[in-house]
UniProtKB/TrEMBL annotation:
InterPro entries: Cation/H_exchanger_TM (IPR006153), Na+/solute_symporter_sf (IPR038770). Pfam families: Na_H_Exchanger. The keyword Cytoplasm does not apply. It comes from Plebeiibacterium sediminum. One of its GO terms (biological process) is proton transmembrane transport. It comes from the Bacteria. This is Cation:proton antiporter. GO terms for molecular function: antiporter activity. One of its GO terms (cellular component) is membrane. Keywords: Membrane, Transmembrane, Transmembrane helix, Transport. Belongs to the monovalent cation:proton antiporter 2 (CPA2) transporter (TC 2.A.37) family. The keyword Ribonucleoprotein does not apply.
């Protein structure tokens, strides 16, 4: 009998070991009642190039992780109530603009002490003004708070921020000496008009039907491919128009919600979402340079605390303008207190454009990554303090 030699791709074995590490650390953190997101980031720190170096292909993990962000927004689009979200348009649009302006103002005031240039003020202001869609959505999903008032406020602001990332990148490009082509600007304008048109259509139509929907619901294999095509098809179209790919997936999710087909789409892609979202957070952990962190621990920890406090104050001031409930205001401000994943792109753009140097770039991405890691702890701490204050105030009121 002739036995054929079986060649095992090293990538497969690495993914198996990676999964086992996730299981062990995830289990330990769940015993401590911490979300899986923290486990994923810690796994990234351990296996990344600055840890034991077990995973060397950072680009592959990062690219796979970006699919997780797209899938996450796709699922959120399926879960939200569009009319309810649009009712909070003042919070989404005016609130987000207030937040960005306040961030720029504070960084401008700090620039007198640190002697930052105008382009550095704009870049750092933009960086701290963005919150993490992946972190907030994951927390809201785990707590079943997507459709709560706090969840709707947070989601509306996140979507507005995802739209603002495009003009932010254009402005940073100008400050760094890059002039976008007219074709890019035209694409972005057309893409924005199409998205607005799609939202208006879905609001007016309320319910639509997919072609051959009756047959699709009976064919599980076809459901997987159709769901994938809708999610990544819309994200590809959005990226073609120089807009966020995640934003396109979000619109696709809203479309699926309008077809009343969320159940089979959810069942088809749920496992993929879990896998790719995990890889996204692992990729965040992989960029944390432990040696650089150790050498600059005081600076980074100081920045970490300042960012959480500063962003919380900005968000409290902004949300309080629209919401009179202090409990909701404090909770939403804590949700939005970290620096978002799109800020990595802004920091990279600033570095490549020469706005900031290597040291500032490393400090910036280390601070962003750590705010993502410690964000759940900050949110839980804020919620506990808020609840205690609410109980104390209620007792005093009834006394």
């Amino acid at each position: 009998m002739i036995f054929a030699a079986v060649h095992i791709d090293p990538l497969f074995s690495k993914f198996v070991i990676l999964s086992c590490i996730v299981i062990v650390i995830g289990f330990l953190l769940r015993l401590l009642k911490q979300p899986y997101m923290i486990a994923y980031i810690i796994v990234g720190i351990i296996v990344g190039p600055y840890g034991v170096g077990f995973v060397s292909d950072e680009e592959l993990i990062s690219n796979l992780g970006s699919l997780g962000l797209v899938l996450l927004l796709f699922f959120i689009g399926m879960e939200i109530r569009l009319p309810q979200l649009l009712n909070n348009w003042k919070v989404s649009i005016i609130g987000t603009l207030m937040q960005v302006f306040a961030s720029l103002l504070i960084i401008w005031l700090l620039s007198f002490y640190f002697n930052w240039s105008t382009s550095q003020v704009v870049m750092f202001g933009f960086v701290i003004s963005l919150s993490s869609t992946a972190v907030i959505v994951k927390i809201l999903q785990e707590r079943d708070e997507i459709n709560s008032k706090a969840g709707q406020y947070a989601l509306g602001i996140l979507i507005a921020q995802d739209i603002l990332i495009v003009p932010m990148l254009i402005l940073l490009g100008y400050l760094g000496g890059h002039r976008p082509d007219k074709s890019e600007l035209i694409k972005q304008i057309i893409g924005g008009i199409l998205i607005i048109g799609m939202i208006i259509f879905l609001v007016r139509k309320k319910e639509i039907k997919l072609p051959f929907q009756k047959y699709i619901q009976k064919d599980h294999e076809m459901q997987v491919f159709i769901a994938f095509s809708l999610c990544f098809g819309f994200s590809t179209i959005s990226a073609f128009f120089q807009l966020s790919a995640a934003l396109g997936a979000f619109i696709a999710g809203i479309l699926i919600s309008a077809t009343r087909s969320t159940e089979w789409v959810h069942n088809s892609l749920s496992a993929f979402k879990i896998l790719f979202v995990a890889l996204f957070f692992i990729s965040i952990g992989m960029i944390i340079d432990l040696n650089f962190l150790k050498d600059n621990l005081y600076t980074i920890v100081t920045l970490l605390i300042v960012v959480f406090i500063l962003n919380s104050i900005i968000n409290i001031s902004m949300i309080r303008f629209f919401c009179k409930d202090w409990k909701i205001t404090l909770y939403v401000s804590a949700l939005l207190s970290q620096i978002g994943e799109f800020s990595f792109i802004l920091a990279a753009t600033g570095y490549q454009s020469g706005i900031i140097k290597e040291y500032s770039y490393q400090i910036t991405i280390s601070t962003i990554a750590l705010t993502l890691l410690f964000s759940p702890l900050w949110i839980n701490l804020t919620k506990k303090v808020t609840n205690q204050f609410h109980v104390f105030a209620h007792k005093n009121k009834t006394a």
